[in-house]
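Structure first, sequence second, as always.
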């Protein structure tokens, strides 16, 4: 089991704590993604693969809008969480364990839309690993389909290499929850520690470690074009309302 899988297996039961309101976030993000899909000529007749579904944040919201959604992840613990949440939201989603570096081992079909949100691709710690992941994903996109992904704004972050992210402070019924990350940089890679502090009747502190590589937008765009996509564009938070830059690649 690699560090990424261990990270998400451990974080799965706490992941919704990173949101002020996870349920509302599923709906808000689905609206944002649906607008991007419509701008690229798709509607709810499109079939979607969420290849880094986590606990279902995007997949559940899109399924609630009426899309046919297949969702996969490397973490079985997160998939189990996502299945429960899908049932609670009364949506039907096909869930599969799959590594997005080797999607053809799980899926023989292609999809109109493949998504990979929330900074999942930068878990690839080398250029060759990222290239393999992009190729794997591009091969599951049908001709005329699109790939939609979000990553942190590493073009900006690499200028200063900040040692931490600003804390999020959420008021709860019994106190407050504080979450933040520390980042230890080694050239273009960094080790992330996610802290979640529940300061309620009793103080509980959780921490989770993982590694990332800061991927510049030009690198990802070049790999998408080399993997068979014909056009790549970037959308930024001020345009979309999403908290990270989003890449849209057409095949």
């Amino acid at each position: 089991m690699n560090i990424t899988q261990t990270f998400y297996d451990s974080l799965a039961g706490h992941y919704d704590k990173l949101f002020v309101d996870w349920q509302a976030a599923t709906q808000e993000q689905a609206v944002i993604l649906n607008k991007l899909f419509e701008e690229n000529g798709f509607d709810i007749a499109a079939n979607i693969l969420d290849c880094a579904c986590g606990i279902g944040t995007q997949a559940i919201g899109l399924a609630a809008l009426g899309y046919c959604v297949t969702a996969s992840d490397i973490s079985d613990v997160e998939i189990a969480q996502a299945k429960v949440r899908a049932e609670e939201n009364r949506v039907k989603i096909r869930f599969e364990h799959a590594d997005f570096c080797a999607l053809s081992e799980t899926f023989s079909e292609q999809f109109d839309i493949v998504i990979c949100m929330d900074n999942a691709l930068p878990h690839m710690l080398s250029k060759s690993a990222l290239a393999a992941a992009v190729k794997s994903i591009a091969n599951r996109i049908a001709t005329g389909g699109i790939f939609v992904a979000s990553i942190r704004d590493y073009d900006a972050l690499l200028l200063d290499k900040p040692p931490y992210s600003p804390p999020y402070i959420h008021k709860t019924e019994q106190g407050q929850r504080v979450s933040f990350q520390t980042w230890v940089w080694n050239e273009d890679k960094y080790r992330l520690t996610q802290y979640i502090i529940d300061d309620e009747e009793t103080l509980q502190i959780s921490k989770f470690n993982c590694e990332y590589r800061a991927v510049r937008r030009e690198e990802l765009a070049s790999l998408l074009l080399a993997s068979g996509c014909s056009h790549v564009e970037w959308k930024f938070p001020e345009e979309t309302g999403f908290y990270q830059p989003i890449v849209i690649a057409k095949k």
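Margin note: The chain is about 30% helix and 30% strand.
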